[in-house]
C-alpha cells in the first residue's frame, strides 16, 4: 500500500509484542535478522531488536498482519530481495567506498522506488 508508510507507527494503534517461543522460528529469524549486539542466550530471552522493529514497523499493519505474519513476511522479503547479493552483483562490497548514486541504482534493480539511504558518521571523520 503506497499510501501508508510503514515506519514509526509507535503509539497507534496500541500493540504489544508477544515473545517468540518457537525454536524453529527463532532459528530462522537469527539467520536472516541477527541481533548482533547481544549474545545468543540474551537474544532469545529479551528479543530487543525484533520487538523494537515489530513495534516500530509491524504495528502499522496490525489490522492486516498479526505479529507472526509480520515476521514471516519480513523473512520472505529478505529471501526475495537479498540486498547483499544484489550489491555484490553490481560490484559493491562491504568495506569499500562507493557513490550514493551507484548504490541506489543497484538497489533499484530489485525495487520499484529509489531507496531512502542515509550516511552516518562513525567514528567522527569516517562516513
UniProtKB/TrEMBL annotation:
<dbReference type="InterPro" id="IPR001568">
    <property type="entry name" value="RNase_T2-like"/>
</dbReference>
<keyword id="KW-0378">Hydrolase</keyword>
<keyword id="KW-0540">Nuclease</keyword>
<dbReference type="Pfam" id="PF00445">
    <property type="entry name" value="Ribonuclease_T2"/>
</dbReference>
<dbReference type="InterPro" id="IPR036430">
    <property type="entry name" value="RNase_T2-like_sf"/>
</dbReference>
<comment type="similarity">
    <text>Belongs to the RNase T2 family.</text>
</comment>
<keyword id="KW-0255">Endonuclease</keyword>
<dbReference type="GO" id="GO:0006401">
    <property type="term" value="P:RNA catabolic process"/>
</dbReference>
<dbReference type="GO" id="GO:0033897">
    <property type="term" value="F:ribonuclease T2 activity"/>
</dbReference>
<protein>
    <submittedName>
        <fullName>Self-incompatibility ribonuclease</fullName>
    </submittedName>
</protein>
<keyword id="KW-0456">Lyase</keyword>
<dbReference type="GO" id="GO:0005576">
    <property type="term" value="C:extracellular region"/>
</dbReference>
<dbReference type="GO" id="GO:0003723">
    <property type="term" value="F:RNA binding"/>
</dbReference>
Amino acid at each position: 500500500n503506497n499510501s501508508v508508510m510503514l515506519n514509526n507507527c509507535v503509539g497507534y494503534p496500541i500493540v504489544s509484542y508477544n515473545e517468540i517461543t518457537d525454536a524453529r522460528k527463532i532459528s530462522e529469524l537469527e539467520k536472516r535478522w541477527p541481533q548482533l549486539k547481544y549474545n545468543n542466550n540474551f537474544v532469545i530471552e529479551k528479543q530487543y531488536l525484533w520487538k523494537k522493529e515489530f513495534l516500530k514497523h509491524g504495528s502499522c499493519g496490525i489490522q492486516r498482519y498479526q505479529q507472526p505474519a509480520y515476521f514471516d513476511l519480513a523473512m520472505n522479503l529478505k529471501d526475495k530481495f537479498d540486498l547483499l547479493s544484489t550489491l555484490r552483483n553490481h560490484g559493491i562490497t562491504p568495506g569499500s567506498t562507493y557513490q550514493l548514486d551507484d548504490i541506489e541504482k543497484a538497489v533499484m534493480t530489485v525495487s520499484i522506488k529509489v531507496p531512502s539511504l542515509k550516511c552516518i558518521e562513525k567514528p567522527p571523520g569516517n562516513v
